[in-house]
Amino acid sequence: MGRLENRVAVVTGAGGGIGAEIAKLFASEGAKVVVNDLGAQVDGSGVDVGPAQSVVNEIVANGGEAVVNGGDVSNYDSAGEIVQTAIDEFGKLDILVNVAGILRDRMLVNLGPEDWQAVLDVHLTGTFNTSKHAAVYWREHRGEGQYRLINFTSGAGLFGSPGQPNYAAAKLGIVGFTLSCAHALDRYGVTSNAIAPAAATRMTGTIPPERAAEMGINLADLAPSAIAYPVAYLASEESGWLNGRVVGAQGGRVTLYENYRPESTLVSQDAWTIDGIFESFPRAFHPEKQGLAGLA
């Protein structure tokens, strides 16, 4: 018996990279998998169901169960069809993993509105689209299973990537969305968590090993397959204790991030004045001035 035996999963963006590794590991652990991928290029252009079909073929050849879906997560109705594929083909939906994404990297001063919107459409709106349809199903079938929503965020969003304002905004938006789902869907038996991966992409795959070493990048530590293992745990029935958290994954390291909490608080006993806030703010929060004087 595999760790995911008799569970049904949808994995978006599963035609290659991390998504493909997740789909294959899920299937090897007994899950029935909908392998979704539009087959677009990194920038979102083009359509090719071939990569997703290749993943399905590999799963089936290894004795697993999977079907392909070439739907576009950024389209609301298409996202509904992705979810419905799991229900029609396998009778239910237990797990939704939102991996699908594109890149259109620009510095802010060079970023056009079309490139801003395209990235948000796939990452943030796409995550909403599939999750909304899954949530409707899970609400209707509450009490019938242990459901899992797993969304993909990124260090670009958690820490800010200067050349990816669109991607960073979308990925941090996914964290907020995930936390909202964690609070709203637990009553239906759903846990909602986010994964922040560090793994080889099509870009890092072009870096020669010697150049990567000079840059301090260990390509072996960025294998997409490594990300699949903590995702599989989150997808399992054993992970019900974890909800509304961000999990980092890279190589052999898995990190549980602490959710936002106050670092320090400035309190005034009286209504603020302009002089009072200008005097007290740096004394309370500036790392070189903290503790130099009492707070207002």
From TrEMBL:
Keyword set, alphabetical order: Oxidoreductase
Short name of any one Pfam family annotated for the protein: adh_short
Domain Ketoreductase: 7-206
Entry coiled-coil feature ranges: none
PANTHER family for the chain: DEHYDROGENASES, SHORT CHAIN, SCP2 DOMAIN-CONTAINING PROTEIN
Protein family: Belongs to the short-chain dehydrogenases/reductases (SDR) family.
Protein name: SDR family NAD(P)-dependent oxidoreductase
Organism from which the protein derives: Microbacterium profundi
Lineage per the UniProt record: Bacteria, Bacillati, Actinomycetota, Actinomycetes, Micrococcales
